[in-house]
Amino acid sequence: MTREGTEDEWMARAACKGLTHLFFPTPAERPQARERREATAREVCAACSVRSLCRDFARDQHEYGFWGGESEDERHAAGYRLIAPIGVRARTAS
Ligand code: SF4
Fold first, then answer.
1. pTM of the entire structure?
2. Is 75 in the pocket of ligand 1 (CB under 6 A)?
3. What is the pLDDT of residues 10-22, one digit of tens each?
4. Which of 44, 52, 70, 74 to mutate to test the pocket of ligand 1 (most atoms within 8 A of CB)?
5. Residue 46: pLDDT over 90
6. 33-67 in b/e burial notation, b at 16+ Cβ within 10 A?
7. Which contacts of 22-29 are long-range, i.e. CB under 8 A and separated by 24 or more positions?
8. Per-domain residue ranges for the chain?
9. Does the Cβ of 48 fall within 6 Å of ligand 1?
């Protein structure tokens, strides 16, 4: 049973069930692998009926990983700051 209007309700309709490996990086993931993984995740999100709810949740909760068709970098750039987003940290290091 899900609670209507809560995260439980929309998460129950997620198109990414069973695909967690596409939405979160493995340790020491290479940039090229990340691009490929996120491109596939983006395709899954594009067909998901709860995409906007998911994106808003991730923005509000400062989540890591790929949510609602949006990468950590994209959320960060939209003003929803993460403490240490992987892509932004890598680009600003050195
Ligand atoms: S928008 Fe993407 S990450 Fe969010 S529930 Fe749907 S498939 Fe999963």
1. 0.84
2. no
3. 999 999 999 999 9
4. 44
5. yes
6. ebeebbeebeebbeebebbebbbebbbeeebbbbb
7. 22/66, 23/65, 23/66, 23/67, 24/64, 24/65, 24/66, 25/65, 25/86
8. 7-92
9. yes
